[in-house]
Write a structure and sequence with these properties.
- The complex is a heterodimer of chains A (166) and B (344).
- Chain A is an all-alpha fold.
- Chain A folds into two domains: 1-76 and 86-119, NADH-ubiquinone/plastoquinone oxidoreductase chain 6, subunit NuoJ (Four Helix Bundle (Hemerythrin (Met), subunit A)); 125-166.
- Helices cover 76% and strands 0% of the residues of chain A.
- Chain A is built from six helices and no strands.
- Chain A is globular, with a radius of gyration of 20 Å.
- Chain B has 344 residues and is mainly alpha-helical.
- Helix content of chain B is 65%, strand content 4%.
- In chain B, strands 1-4 form a two-stranded antiparallel ribbon.
- In chain B, helix 3 packs antiparallel against helix 5.
- Chain B is globular and about 55 Å long.
- Chain B starts with a helix and ends with a helix.
- The A-B interface holds A 26, 33, 49-50, 53-54, 56-57, 60-62, 65-66, 68-69, 72-73, 127-128 and B 130-132, 135-136, 138-140, 142-143, 145-146, 149-150, 153, 161, 164-165, 168-169, 171-172, 175, 192.
Amino acid sequence: MQILFMILAAIALSSGVLVVFQRHPLRSALYLILNFFAVAGMYLLAHAEFIAAVQIIVYAGAIMVLFLFVIMLLNLRQPEEEAKPPHILQKISGITLAVFVALLLIYGFTQAKLPAPGKEAAAGLGNTEAIARALFTDYLLPFEVTSVLLLVAIVGAVVLAKQKLK
Amino acid sequence: MNITVLVILTAIKITLILVVFLTAIAYTVLMERKVLGFIQLRYGPNRVGPWGLLQPLADLLKLLFKEDFTPPGVNKVLFVLAPIITAVTAFLPFAAIPFAQQILPDHIYLYGQKVDLSVAALNQGVIADVNVGLLYIFAVASLSVYGAVLGGWASNNKYSLLGGIRLSAQMISYELALGLSVIGVIMMAGTLSLVKIVDAQKDVWFIFYQPLGFLIFLIASFAECARTPFDLIECENELVAGFQTEYSSMKWALFMLGEYCHIIVASALAVTLFFGGWHGPYLPPIAWFVIKTFIFVFFFIWVRGTFPRFRFDQLMRLGWKVLLPLGLANILVTAAVILFFHKG
C-alpha cells in the first residue's frame, strides 16, 4: 500500500507540475486528466470508493471533456505569438504572493497532525451510505444551498450566453 | 492463500473471460452483417466457411496485413493513443457485470493441495464485485469519449474533428439521461453493487417496476454507443467516416472493436439492471445471461436496419428536453412510492 501510494503521489505531483509548464493548452488538459486519475487512485487506496468513482465521473469524464471541447473549438493549433515578458510589478507581486502562500502552507503543515501516507479512511467514511446519510441529515442545509447556488450559476450562464447572440 | 497464487488465478480468470468476450465481439460483427443482409433481402457474408462462420477470422487477417498508414501532419502520440483508449475503456466495464451466480465450487484440490476459491470472489461469475459497481461502469464509460475526441483532433482533418466534437456533445448530453434512468433501479435495490442488484430481482425483474426508466436507459444507451439512430459522429454523407476517417489497419480495427464492445456491454448492463441478470428457470444462470444479452444485441442490429438517422438538433432536443425531464420525473415518482409504501 505504501509503495502504491508513493507511486500515485509521484504521478500526481509530476503531472500537476506538467500541467503548469506546458505551452499547449491541450497537453495541459491531458496532464490534468492524468492528475485526476492519480488522485482517484489515492482515494481507492484509502477505501473511499465512492469518492474515487465520483472523481472520475465528474472531473475526468465530464468537466475535462468540456475543457477539451472548448480548446478544440478555439482551434489553438496555430503556433501562438510570443508571450510578452511580464511587467516588473507583476513579477514582484507574484513572488510576494508565492512566498506568502508558502509560509501559510508551512505553518499549516506544522500545526496539523497528518496521518501516515496511504492510511485507510475511518471505517465507512468513503462508503456511499455513510456519505449519503451525512449529506441528508447533518449537512442537509449546506447541501441544498449548494444546489441552489449551482442552479443560479446555470441560469446566469444561459442568460449571459443568450445576450451575446442578440 | 498465497498472494502470488491469487494474482495468477485472477489473471487466468480475466484472460478466459476476455477471450470469450473477444470471440463474442467478433461474432457480433458477423451477426450484424448477416442480420442486416436478411433485413435487406441479401445473403450477407457466406463465402468463408460454412454459412460464412469463419468470416471474422478472414476480416482479422485482412486488417492485420493492411498498411498501417499515418497521415502527415497528425499528432503522432495522440493518434496512436486514441484507438487504445477507445478499446480499453470499452472492455473495462465488463469487469463489474455479473454473468453467473457461482461458476466454481468453494474448494478445489490441486496437486493434493486444498485451494480456497472463495477468496476474492474467484469462484463467482463476476471479475470484481465492486461495492460501487454501477458508478465504476459509468466512470469508465464516461472516459470512452476521449478516444474519439482525441483521435478526431489528432487526425488533422476537419471531418475527423467535427466527428469528435459531435460525439463529445452527444455523450455529455446523454450521460445525464443515462445516469438519471438507473437511479430508480438503485433506489429499489438500495445498493450500487451489480451483484446485489441482480439478487434483488430474484422474484420480479425491475423492468416491471421501472418501465419508464428502462425506456430512457435504452434510448440513452443507443446514443452512448453512437449507434443508429444516433450515429451522427460517423454519418457518411456529411462527415466521411467521422473521427475514424484517417485511421487504417489495426488502429481502425480497435475503433470497431470498441464500438461492438460497447453494444455488448450496454446489452449486458440492460439485462443486469432491468431483466434480472442471470436469473431464470431451468437453464443454468450463465445460459440465461447469454440468451438475454443476445436478444439485446439483436435488438441493436434490428434498430440499425430499420431506423433512419436523427438530425443533430433533434438529437439535442430529445436529450435535453424530453429524456432529462422524464428521468427526473421518474426519480421523483419512484422516491415517492418507496417513501409511502415501504416505510422502514
